[in-house]
Amino acid sequence: MKALLVILLTSILVDNFVLSKFLGICPFLGVSKNLNTAMGMSVAVIFVMLLSTAITWPIHTFVLVPLGVGFLVTLVFILSIAALVQFVETILKKAMPPLYKALGIYLPLITTNCAVLGVTILNIDQKYDFLQSMFNSLGVGVGFMLALFLFAGVRSRVDKADVPKFLKGLPITLIAASLVSLSFFGFKGMIEKLFG
Amino acid sequence: MHFAFSLAVKAGDILIPVAITGGLALFFGGVLAVVAKFFEIPLSEKQTRVREMLPGANCGACGYTGCDGYAAALANDGVPTGLCPVGGAPLSASLAEFLGVEAQSVEQRVACVMCNGTSEHTRTRYEYQGIPDCVTASMMFAGPWACTYGCLGLGTCVQACPYGALSVVDGVAIVDNAKCTACELCVAACPKKLISMIPMREASYQVKCRNLTSGAETRKICTVGCIGCSRCVKACGDDAIHLDGGPLALIDQDKCTACGKCKAVCPTNSIHSWGTDVGAAPAEAPVAAGVAQ
User: Fold this and answer.
1) What is the predicted pLDDT for the residue at B281?
2) Mean pLDDT for chain B?
3) What confidence category does residue A69 fall into, taking pLDDT thresholds of 50, 70 and 90?
4) How far apart are CA A49 and CA B172, in angstroms?
5) Using the beta-carbon criterion (under 8 Å), do B35 and A64 form an inter-chain contact?
6) pLDDT value for B275
7) Bridge-partner residues for B168, per DSSP?
8) Distance in Å from the first CA to the final CA of chain B
9) B229, pLDDT greater than 50
10) Contact by Cβ (8 Å): A83, B31
């Protein structure tokens, strides 16, 4: 139980995907303009990350490893995630229109997101078992949400600030992103102190 | 023998991954096909018909993702019928008739390039030899023209327009009102934010200048720039012209009655008029020029 908690906290704070591993930067910059889009995107990301892990971990463990073709992870995982998202989208559209509307355009957008592929592959690299993988994916998704929410707040302030003309738009956004990322360095070592 | 053996091993090395990937792809494809069949949502006939009525330009000016998005919203959510600027009033009316709702009046609008600084009125500060694109040129000291607010004349808006309504004549883009569908793609494309949407009326008056520098400064660099003398403000009997945010007159199109007094008093001829009956390019109409001085 403690191990799972450590994995969860580590993936949310210390190894935050966006701010420490720099995965999923595209949606991080693209949809962090306001809290509504940030919410939709992050819920969709958590949803897809959990589902993808639930399908890619068994594929890796029960298909790729026994057949000795572990090197195919990238290819097979991309294939599985893309098919899975398509599958879920079709079903949601019919069965749960409100949820489909809420996730909206974000669901297909995440299909090719590096953060989703990243979490599934890192689960394998870390040699997590199934439960640990699921917790790690949840943590990564929540960490993504946290990063997006924090940054949406930062951006709303930057929008009101008197930014020099040459820094307006993307440059100041990137600078702000790097500062937020830097602040997450503060969590380094926290987990060891708490649980170690 | 040795050669054949190693070949066999290599073939297996390749075949197994290919079989696995191919098998998985086939499996997923099959599942997706079955799911798509079972969970198919038939489009309502209403929506299909509405989609056929829309122009299919997919410009997004209605605020939806394209004509499909607007058709879905029209058929299912009962949004106003007058959002499509391409179809305009006739489309709004026919949509309203088909959907059985009240037609929403559409004020037809056209794009207008708010600059008149052709090469005879202003000059360049340096010779620009870069990529013929306004965005690129505006990065080089705000463009080659003496007026940094004016049209760069390199045709980024021309490329953005899917209807061929824009053209560059002597360094300034002009809009062909007959071809303009008010999709606003040029408004977004212009790096100088010079293109405004104005109502399509029988007669319309515009201050075709966006220069915010002082009058003396403007006079030095352009002979047709607005110098903020506020003569038009005083001449206007409808309180439609104001100098907001700098020495630049702006005409409130909601209040303007197109009386033409402003154009008559403008000392620099920066106020221009056109009529919808002209159809094509904004009428240069130097009629009032003599009255100006």
Assistant:
1) 42
2) 82
3) confident
4) 52
5) no
6) 61
7) B173
8) 103
9) yes
10) yes
Query: Is A72 within 8 Å of B25 when comparing Cβ atoms?
Result: no
Query: Binning pLDDT at 50, 70 and 90, where does residue B287 land?
Result: very low
Residue B286, pLDDT score = 39
Given CA atoms B55, B58, B62, B65 in this order, what sign does their dihedral have? positive
- Closest residue to B35, CB basis, from A71, A80, A91: A91
Task: Report how far residue A29's alpha carbon sits from residue A25's, in angstroms, rounded to the nearest whole number.
Answer: 6
Amino acid A71: pLDDT: 86
- Say which of A79, A94, A95 has its CB closest to residue B28: A79
Q: Which of A69, A87, A90 sits opposite B16 (nearest CB)?
A: A69
Contact yes or no for B32 and A86 at CB 8 A: yes
Q: Are residues B120 and B253 in the same domain?
A: yes
ipTM over 0.90: no
Place of tokens 């990065």: B139
Are B3 and B33 in the same domain? yes
Q: How far is A113 from chain B (nearest CA, A)?
A: 19
Q: How many domains does chain A have?
A: 1
- Do B16 and A90 count as a contact with CB atoms less than 8 A apart? no
> Taking the complete model, does pTM exceed 0.80, yes or no?
no
Inter-residue contact A172 to A163 (CB < 8 Å)? yes
Question: How far are the Cα atoms of B38, B198, B250, B258 from residue B254, in angstroms, in the given order?
Answer: 54, 10, 12, 11
Would B104 be classed as within a structural domain?
Answer: no
How far apart, in whole angstroms, are the C-alpha atoms of residue B47 and residue B207?
A: 43
Distance CA B141, CA A40 (A): 41
Q: How confident is the model at residue B2 (pLDDT cuts 50, 70, 90)?
A: low
Residue A167 lies in a domain: no
Give me B267's structure tokens.
């000392």
Here the CATH number for the domain that contains residue B139 is 3.30.70.20
- Do A79 and B20 count as a contact with CB atoms less than 8 A apart? no
Indicate the pLDDT class of residue B3, thresholds 50, 70 and 90.
Answer: low
> For A93, which of B25, B32, B41 is closest by C-beta distance?
B41
Instruction: Name chain A contacts of B28, Cβ cutoff 8 Å.
Output: 79-80, 83, 87
Residues B156 and B212 in one domain: yes
Question: Residue B63 belongs to what domain range?
Answer: 47-99
What does the mean pLDDT of chain A come to?
Answer: 86
Amino acid at B29: G
Q: Which residues contact A108 (CB under 8 A, 6 or more apart)?
A: A85, A86, A89
- B26 with B84, same domain: the answer is no
Is B24 in the same domain as B80? no
Asked whether the beta carbons of residue B20 and residue A67 sit closer than 8 angstroms, the reply is: yes
